[in-house]
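U., I forgot to send this yesterday:
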Amino acid sequence: MQKGQFNQVRFKDGSFKLVKQDFINKLEQNEVLVKVHYTSVNQYDKILMENRSKEDYVMGAEGSGIIEDVAQGLDQNLKGRKVAFIHHGWSQYVVKDQDDLLFLDESVDLRIAADAIVNPMTALCLRKICCDLKANAVVIDSASTSLGRMLIQLFQKDNIDIIPLAMDSKQFDQLRTEFGLARIMDQSKKEFFDLLCGAAEKFEKIVYISMQGGDLPGKILDRLPAKSEMILIGNLAEKDLVVPCSNFYYDSKKIRGFFFDRYLREELDDETEHKFFHIIAQDLKNGGMIFGTKVAKEMKLEEWDQALNQISDKSQEGKIILQCQ
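Result:
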């Protein structure tokens, strides 16, 4: 094992801060030591920061790095393997169970794997939910975000009709150019709701994936056909959702929440999780066209608080990643 100390962002004495941490003396059964090269900064981290403010909690939803040491009894050939992982990413080193790692091909650039689990797994899980619900169309707000783009590409592969929602004409043009979709709705247009109703009325089962927050998602759900379902995965506007009650007792619509950590822990079986990991690893090996992190800006680990404040400014361009070494 390494000797000395390393840096990590940890909740200490009432706030999150960059602190020095001692290396552990010994790895336990099945554990490996990962030298973290990159970690991402995103809205999910903000949620974690608001809900995990307890002593010694280490921040960072995920990261990528190289295995530097392994527990006694593990295959020594694991040393030097590139991996991605979840939890405690804002650190120069992490200890992980090898079974929880996403193993990467040697050719993968660790930058594009900095955000290789939370958003990709969220997208794959949402696709699974939509397929289980037998959706024949999916409405996606905040469609120009990294997660929105992943969802569009996955549903295109499944031949499920997609109705992406763009916040303005610039995003509308970007989505049309990038994906060539016939149905893209510009929320800034006066006729937005009329166009949405016209596009949605021909589908029997619509699932609306919403991360925008505020009062708009409720208005959108209100205009979707009866028996439509909303999956609420975020609240970028940081405002409460308001939905007319008649949507539920008259139109039999439903709303469910999706929080990645809970879904992974309580609903996703191990076989499907490993299958999804394989899909992500293959995509990253092939250049990360779907799941690779689109880097908007690189910063240093010690600049984590500045990076957190810049998330909204960079959300349409890609991800902010932190260099941990």
